[in-house]
Amino acid sequence: MSGRYGYVLFHTSAAAFRAEKAAREPGASGNRPSTGARLVPTPRALSSDCGVSLRFDLGEAGAGDAERAMRALLDARGIPFDRIAEA
Amino acid sequence: MGGDDRIVYLDNAATSWPKPAGVADAMAAFLRDSGGNPGRSGHRLSIAAGRVVAEARDAVAEALGVGDPLRVAFAANATAAINAALFGVLRPGDLVVADGMAHNAVARPLTELGRMGVSVKWIRCGRDGSIDLAHAEKLVRGTGGRAARMLVVTHGSNVCGSLAPLGELAGVAARHGATMLVDAAQTAGIEDLGLDSLGDAMVAFTGHKAMLGPGGTGGLAFSRGADIGRVRPLVRGGTGSASDSEDQPAFMPDRLEAGTANGPGLAGLAAGLGWIAGNGGRGAIRDRELRLTEALVSGIAALPGAAVYGPEPGRPRCAVMSFTLAGWSCSELALALDERYGVLCRVGLHCAPRAHRVLGTFPDGTARFAPGPFTTEADVERAIGALAELAAEGGRA
Fold first, then answer.
1. Tens of pLDDT along B247-262?
2. In chain B, where the domains are located
3. Which of A4, B167, B194, B362 fits B356 for a cystine, CB–CB 3.0-4.6 Å?
């Protein structure tokens, strides 16, 4: 664990649950984020919303790789999201 | 046949029964183990509840042929979904065209919209419940350059089991720029609707019939080609999203899902659809139910004094059939079938007076048999045998 997290913010929790399922499917995609993604309350610093976000480990190697993998997964599944942020 | 408490349940068109055992188990598990509010809070019970709702949404999308589950909005039942579609899209001055087999879930909202200045036209249907496609084309084309805004189609008749040709009707709608609303209360979960292939279309579905879920579940699903933005939400309120705004979110499914979801119900719905997938799939279940329906049609038609209404054998249909027995009023027939033979059915007008006018059975109505996935050939034989005895008695009007 690097202690650095990325957060996928969604407009609707229905998309967040789809994303969580996709990220947790074993071996679903070569682009699958490598760390245990999970739904958490959206950090207050990122949004005033009451919803959930998909948190994932940004890893040691470079935050860009993990974020790119997450974007690729969401795009491949057609799951709409608001943005990806770091906190 | 007396002295046997066994029930022959032939009222699956009203609601399916029994449900697969997993349905009640899933509902109890939801209340016991994941009882948070789905999609609201971020704690473990809320997230567990949200996963259950997401599972139901995925399963419904698959059942309806919708590629993107986010185009499925849950509602209390098919009626609520139909109202959401009709009142959400139609405005005074619009033309809406519907078929003559419509249930009151369609006819009553359209009657009210007619009072509000929407022009409502009805497609002719044959005595077998079949839709007159040429008449549909003419009505949807409209007059004076004003085509219909919406074509409303009863996919499977809840009275006689006639099945509308969705692909051809989607073509009619597309040629004139209309959106199509399909009332799939009798067919969603068992027929291949292929919603994404129907152009600009919506499907109103219920969860408690062929999908084998509990009452209080259903919804409105949109095809890939549908313009969801023109559906003005009827119900507005909390969604767990965009909470800084007092406007209803524009995005799906929150746009049409204000208020807390029916978590226990949707848990049961997911279990019902899961049972179908694990027991041969909807095609196998449909084929079996249709064989039982055809056996009911031929067996009852052969009885003295019996009249069967609806599609001829071999014509497209769903697992619903209607009949009358000479000398017997529908209510007396239902009572005798229930009390003396344990055969449960629905009689009367089935909330579809317009369809009964088409069939020529208004206002007396019919008796309706609708087998389900747990109906056996022995059940069908028992029902036909009961009717044979009642026919021989000569009736009780």
1. 999 999 999 999 999 9
2. 8-19+281-393, 23-277
3. B362
